[in-house]
Write a structure and sequence with these properties.
Strand content: 15-25%
Radius of gyration: 55 Å
Strand order of the largest sheet: 9-8-7-6-12-11-10
Low-confidence stretches: 1-120, 133-160, 171-340, 567-616, 1038-1049, 1100-1110
Shape: elongated
Length: 1412
């Protein structure tokens, strides 16, 4: 039973807030003593016209109490409405105070009966007041009778209240309620004054479910039913269609309604907005009475406290969280304003109270036994007759009986007698509860406000974040669209450039003098050439290609001497530019050791995942600068998952100023590079800032970019393939290696140890140091730097055994002349300028100007020089005109401390004015044209060769580490640099300035100009002395050293191996590297029987691990057991028929580098074929030519066994193929091995191609036909030039090309020619032998020949000087090859045997190298 009412009366913790609720509904809701167990409900009303806002509800701190709502009447407020429950309660309360003294001791069964008596007497008194005047004496209570227990305050409730007005108000049309609502409407509640600017948002209040479903019970006949008062006007807050609720009723109260309960009289009292059901009982197991008692007069103090709280609450208008909505008991129906004029009072009562009456009936019926015993009439009769009356009331739908019962005198008296004391106790307890509730409610309200404000702030933040995300998304989309548009336009531009290049290439193929439409007369009077960007393995750029932009620059004038300032003026000019104090020199602390363990960067895993998840084609796009020798252009670098794109910003004003002639030599302005082509990625500096990257490609060119900051550099590296810095320096191919500092690269690489062991040359080591220290061909300010090594440029003869001919490499170039060294030391010691730190030299040993000065005679440097010097050549007396003059200048001129560039050691063309520039005459009348060479060099090739030999000499090898200390090492900066007279302008040092800190553009431009003028020192690679090189005499005792000749008494012939077959051995391939699975000398006979003869590395094994005397007697070659036993000849015989017209020779076969496959040509079906050496089976047939294939050649192999194969045919063309070492087929795609496509078609011959040689390192194919000149093609198919031999040299038969740039061609009748790869005839000779085989040593310095005479001869390649003749053999020589260590020569003989010769090029090298 109790739980039923608790469910009905107590809201289910519904969260709601009403901004229109008056504060008094909060304060004076008081629990009865029994309310700890029995819930009750109250209603509160506020001003009209306000919507309700739900408030969060929190549990009361009084855990034992049910949630109750309290409210205290507030002064100064307009009338409030009463619902039916209030009316019933308050009519019953009216008389409570009158007989309080009398009835206090007449309690029966607890306070519940008193409450009900009071209620009935209140109804009776109201009825009397209705009949009498408004000031009926019965309706007033004497205040003097009020006991100290504050009962008298109850009697004041109805002082001066006319009950007639109450009933009138029940039916009155609320004509002017709107004004009242506007007058007294409460303001929103703001516990925090800072929050007053945020009014509560209006929210519709919804009722809970169960309380609505109260069954309607008919009242018994004659009983009176009271229902709720107040019909909301249309301006009320309860909108039609929503659930009517008590708050809606409160906001719609008519102005004429008067509360029956109030603390003061009606003239000044506020309308009490509390209402309660009379549901108290004498038994503690029944629902307790909850009501509102006014403040007693004698508790002024507490009254003032309440008023303060109430008024503050009312002003702020906030509904406390403890107030529970209870809408179903007050289901008010909205009605038109004038509806009451045509309805009877009964109808109005029923309509107004129809929702509350059923609940009252339910209570009366359920509590009938108790009420019938407790509430007795004046004559002892039961007011609630069980049976007839109750049943009638329960089944009735009318409210009249209920109203009549509650308004009867008997009911009033009974209530007054039996319920008074209960009300007094209720009030007293309520006061105590009110104090506790007040603080709790205010606190909860504050918490609710805080939570709401936080939610509101979160909403604002989320909204802002959403808008920001939307804007960012839109910006990203716009940027992506712009990028796509940019990429499309860039692709169009690139395609246009590519199409033009292809068109030009086709035109050249057709129209050159060897082309289909060419004639001899069509050859130009003057061919112009430029240095190609192709680099060999040692990073030498030696190849020249045709230059369509070439000219003799006839319009260029010479500078006058007056245009040059004196040295002092130049220095003053440098100083007069705004100088900057040097920042603290970069700390010399050694960097942390680079950890090279692990397979790859753990750091990059996350970034790689992020990259992989990026949608769209572009992984990264960033502004960047393309850095080329004299042009630095702004543009956009875009990286997809497979390619790099660079698109120059052609709208950039700086780009528009660049001369078109310079742009013509700048590649990559609209560049595209495939990931599969990237071979190495190096971090680089640009203008002393570590913001550059240099990417090396498979086509042996490089491209350099500069980025806004180091973070971008890192992002770019992590977007590129994991290649590290390549495979040359013994470093793992990891991205962290690409990002490593130069010092870390130096420490981690194995190159220093290899140089010390003399496995690599001085040149190669210096080029390595330059490369990792940031020197690059793409930035003339950071061009690779090499030392002067010779001092004698005057004598007719140069002796490389004399120390006096060599420079002291322990001193910088400026300190070699003692007098000049004193000058520089004094300058440093007497330095007086404040603006810059002291230094010995104002300009560096390597600047863009010095590089252009050295390279003036070859394009594109000529154009670059003119562009940098206002389209003028240097004055003849200031130009680079002779090597001896340049050396003297470096020793005497105090402003000249130039070191050399690597081209002095490999590029003879730089000394020749091949384009015929007008460079003027010196004062002595000597014309400036070609460079004047030292007397000991007859031609540029001699000078370069001897200079290079001097660089590799023992004197230089012993001192080179000291020069490295000066340029790259610990003497580069700091006290050691001062001691060594090696201090340069501070702006040439890394870390001396941070350009990003300079915000003024003019200042920054000035700084950049100064850096470019001063030059840039290489990165410091080590801060301790560089280790020296091991001596040659020490190394000669190491195993397998190729340096010193040993066993001079060794016999020339090691062994002869005779095969059972007497067929001539026409091809020998000695792939003898120890790491091969089968090191062997593969031989092929004229009858196409091949043998895989096992190779034993016996030479130079002395001192090697595992060496034994028994092994020393082993012969180097062991015959193929299948041939020796004659057991498996079928596995060694190539049975496919070759064309009968083909003469089988050494050119018909190629053996792959791993000895596993043989390629054979000459078949009648115009194919060449691939056979397995293990099984002898055919594995691939390759078609492509239109006639029989006559010759094959293979390039050197790289890691993985990949190489180029060239096939020549009777159709006068050559096809370049790619051999995949991974798949062991011709072509890249194993799925398409039947129809591989050639990489290039090489044309230009008029006759059958008979010999060919290919060099992958130089990117060249040199071929000879039956008649006519040999042709030089690039591996991309371009015809570079024809090698026109002298008279009678018309029919080439053999060609051998070395990576050092020598091309030896053997013609008919023993005539030999040596061409440079750039077409210059260097030497020729004629021998009496009919030569069948030629071979160049790996360094290109020595030529070995053999022929029908059976004599092996060794020649010096550069000038065909004979070095050695081996004793003759009994048969002609048909083929030859050298073992990998260059110590054994294997020849194939016409008698069907092979002969192994001891060969030692070092012996002849030492015998002939010293005097020139």
């Amino acid at each position: 039973m109790v739980s039923k009412y608790r469910d009905i009366l107590e809201p289910q913790r519904e969260i709601g807030r009403s901004s229109s609720l008056s504060g008094r509904s909060i304060r004076h809701e008081i629990n009865s003593p029994t309310s700890t167990e029995h819930p009750s409900s109250s209603f509160s009303e506020g001003g009209r016209g306000e919507k309700q806002t739900p408030t969060p509800m929190e549990d009361s701190p009084l855990a034992s109490l049910p949630h109750t709502d309290s409210g205290i009447g507030e002064e100064g407020h307009g009338p409030g409405g009463l619902n039916g429950a209030e009316l019933g309660l308050r009519l019953g309360l009216g008389m409570a105070g009158r007989e309080t003294d009398r009835d206090r001791h007449r309690e029966r069964d607890g306070g519940g009966g008193d409450l009900l008596c009071t209620l009935s007497s209140e109804v009776r008194r109201s009825r009397e007041s209705l009949l009498d005047s408004p000031h009926n004496p019965n309706s007033a209570s004497n205040p003097g009778q009020a006991p100290p227990s504050s009962i008298s305050s109850i009697s004041q409730t109805n002082k001066g209240i006319n009950v007639k007005e109450i009933l009138k108000s029940l039916v009155a049309a609320p004509l002017d309620g709107g004004e009242a609502g506007q007058e007294v409407g409460p303001t929103p509640y703001h516990p925090d004054p800072a929050l007053k600017t945020h009014p509560m948002l209006p929210m519709q209040f919804h009722s809970f479910d169960r309380s609505v479903m109260v069954p309607v019970k008919k009242p018994p006949p004659g009983s009176l039913s009271v229902n709720t008062v107040g019909t909301p006007t249309t301006s009320g807050a309860a909108t039609p269609g929503s659930t009517p609720n008590i708050f809606a009723a409160a906001t719609a109260t008519p102005k004429s309604m008067i509360n029956t309960t109030g603390a003061t009289d009606s003239a000044s009292s506020s309308s009490s907005s509390s209402s309660s059901f009379v549901n108290g009982a004498t038994s503690k197991n029944l629902p307790a009475v909850q009501t509102v008692a006014p403040m007693p007069e004698d508790t002024v103090e507490s009254m003032s406290v309440y008023c303060e709280v109430e008024q503050s609450a009312l002003r702020s208008g906030l509904t406390p969280p403890e107030l529970k909505p209870f809408s179903s008991l007050a289901g008010f129906q909205t009605a038109p304003r004038d509806a009451g004029q045509c309805l009877s009072i009964t109808t109005k009562l029923e309509r107004a109270l129809e929702k509350v009456a059923p609940l009252l009936r339910e209570i009366f019926v359920d509590f009938a036994p108790f009420l019938s015993r407790t509430l007795l009439g004046s004559h002892g009769q039961e007011l609630l007759i069980e049976g007839t009356g109750l049943v009638c009331m329960k089944s009735s739908t009318s409210v009249v009986e209920l109203v009549m019962l509650l308004c009867s005198q008997e009911w009033q008296n009974s209530i007054q007698k039996n319920a008074g004391l209960a009300f007094i106790e209720l009030i007293n307890e309520g006061r105590l509860l009110c104090h506790a509730m007040k603080d709790h409610i205010v606190r909860v309200a504050n918490e609710a406000e805080f939570i709401l404000n936080r939610q509101r702030a979160e909403d604002v933040h989320k909204h802002a974040e959403f808008e920001s995300n939307c804007a960012q998304y839109a910006a990203d989309r716009r940027e992506e669209e712009r990028m796509c548009d940019h990429l499309i336009s860039a692709a169009k531009h690139r395609d246009h450039v590519t199409a033009n290049q292809l068109k030009q290439k086709i035109l050249n193929i057709l129209t050159n003098k060897h082309g289909a439409w060419g004639t001899m007369s069509q050859s130009q009077l003057h061919d112009f050439w430029r240095l190609d960007y192709w680099e060999d393995d040692l990073r030498r750029r030696r190849r020249f290609v045709r230059n369509p932009f070439g000219s003799t620059h006839p319009d260029v004038s010479l500078k006058a001497l007056e245009d040059y300032g004196t040295e002092e003026e130049e220095e003053e000019g440098l100083k007069s530019k705004k100088t900057f104090r040097s920042q603290s020199v970069v700390s010399q602390n050694p960097e942390a050791e680079l950890m090279l363990e692990g397979d790859d960067d753990a750091v990059s895993l996350l970034q790689e995942k992020e990259m992989d998840n990026l949608a769209g084609p572009v992984v990264l796009s960033t502004p960047a600068q393309l850095v080329s020798p004299v042009v630095v252009v702004h543009g956009t670098l875009s990286i997809t998952t497979t390619e790099i794109y660079f698109e120059v910003d052609e709208d950039d004003p700086a780009f528009k100023k660049i001369h078109t002639k310079v742009l013509a030599y700048s590649e990559g302005l609209h560049g595209k590079w495939m990931f599969s082509e990237i071979r190495a990625v190096f971090s680089r500096r640009y203008l002393l800032q570590n913001t550059g990257l240099e990417v090396f490609m498979a086509n042996r060119t490089s491209v350099m970019f500069n980025f806004p900051d180091q973070a971008t550099v890192k992002r770019v590296v992590y977007s590129l393939p994991r290649v590290g810095v390549g495979t040359s320096y013994g470093l793992p191919q990891a991205r962290r290696i690409s990002l490593a500092t130069p010092r870390q690269l130096f420490k981690s690489s194995n190159m220093t140890q290899r140089w010390q062991r003399r496995e690599i040359s001085n040149f190669e080591y210096l080029m390595f140091l330059n490369t990792i220290a940031g020197r690059t061909y793409n930035d003339l300010n950071q061009y690779p730097v090499f030392p002067w090594v010779l001092t004698n440029y005057e004598s007719e003869e140069l002796d490389l055994t004399l120390p006096g001919n060599f420079r002291d490499l322990s001193k910088p170039i400026g300190a070699l002349n003692p007098k000049r060294a004193v000058f520089y030391a004094e300058r440093y010691d007497t330095w007086e300028e404040d603006g810059t730190p002291p230094h010995h030299y104002s300009s560096l040993y390597s600047t863009a100007n010095t590089t252009l000065l050295w390279m003036l005679r070859i394009e594109p440097f000529t154009t670059f020089f003119l562009n940098a010097n206002e389209n003028q050549f240097d004055h003849p007396d200031r130009a680079f005109s002779g090597i001896a003059r340049a050396w003297r200048g470096c020793q005497r001129d105090t402003a000249d401390v130039k070191e050399l560039i690597p081209e002095f050691y490999y590029l003879p063309e730089m000394f020749v004015n091949s384009s015929g520039y007008e460079l003027g005459q010196r004062e002595d009348g000597t014309a400036v044209s070609d460079i004047q060479l030292p007397a000991w060099a007859k031609k540029p090739e001699d000078f370069v060769r001897i200079n290079r030999m001097a660089l590799e000499s023992e004197f230089v090898s012993c001192q080179l580490h000291q020069w490295i200390d000066l340029i790259f090492g610990y003497k580069q900066r700091g006290p050691e640099a001062v001691r060594a007279l090696n201090v340069f302008h501070f702006l040439s040092y890394e870390g001396s300035v941070t350009l990003d800190t300079i915000t003024d553009p003019a200042q920054r431009e000035s700084m950049e100009t100064q850096i470019q003028t001063c030059g840039q020192t290489p990165s410091q690679l080590l801060i301790e002395p560089h280790p020296p090189r091991s001596s040659a005499m020490h190394l000669c005792f190491l195993p397998q050293s190729p340096l010193m000749f040993k066993d001079q008494m060794q016999q020339d012939v090691i062994m002869v191996l005779k095969f059972p077959s007497n067929s001539p051995v026409t091809h020998v391939a000695a792939n003898t590297l120890p790491h091969l699975s089968v090191p062997a000398a593969v031989t092929v006979t004229c009858s196409r029987l091949f043998a895989v003869n096992r190779w034993h590395n016996t030479v130079g094994l002395r001192g090697a691990p595992g060496y034994s005397l028994e092994q020393a007697h082993h012969l180097p070659i062991e015959m193929d057991p299948l041939i020796a036993n004659n057991s498996g000849v079928s596995k060694r015989q190539i049975t496919d028929l070759v064309d009968q017209s083909i003469q089988i020779n050494t050119h018909c076969f190629v053996v792959t580098a791993d000895n596993r496959y043989i390629l054979v040509c000459g078949f009648w079906d115009k194919s060449f074929r691939v056979y397995s050496t293990e099984t002898g089976k055919l594995t691939q047939i390759v078609f492509g030519h239109w006639d029989v294939v006559t010759c094959l050649a293979r390039s050197e192999s790289y890691i993985g066994g990949d190489c180029y194969i060239v096939s020549g045919s009777r159709d006068a063309t050559l096809l370049l193929w790619y051999w995949s070492g991974r798949h062991h087929i011709i072509g890249d795609n194993p799925n398409n091995s039947d129809y591989p496509a050639p990489r290039a078609v090489l044309t230009g011959h008029d006759h059958e191609v008979v010999c060919v040689s290919v060099c992958a390192e130089l990117g060249l194919v040199i071929s000879g036909a039956k008649e006519g000149p040999c042709l030089v093609h690039t591996i991309t198919g371009d015809l570079l030039r024809a090698l026109e031999g002298p008279e009678l040299c018309l029919r080439p038969r053999l060609i051998s090309v070395s990576s050092e740039g020598h091309c030896i061609i053997c013609y008919e009748r023993g005539r030999f020619c040596n061409f440079s790869i750039n077409g210059k005839l260097l030497a020729q000779m004629e021998v009496n032998d009919s030569t069948r085989a030629i071979l160049l040593s790996s360094d290109g310095q020595n030529l070995v020949t053999g022929g029908d005479n059976g004599v092996v001869e060794v020649w010096q390649a550069c000038d065909f000087k004979q070095l050695y003749i081996y004793p003759g053999c009994d048969a002609g020589i048909r083929a030859m090859d050298l073992s990998h260590d260059q110590r054994t020569l294997i020849t194939g003989m016409a008698s069907g045997s092979i002969v192994a010769f001891n060969i030692d090029f070092n012996r002849w090298h030492y015998e002939h190298q010293n005097r020139y």
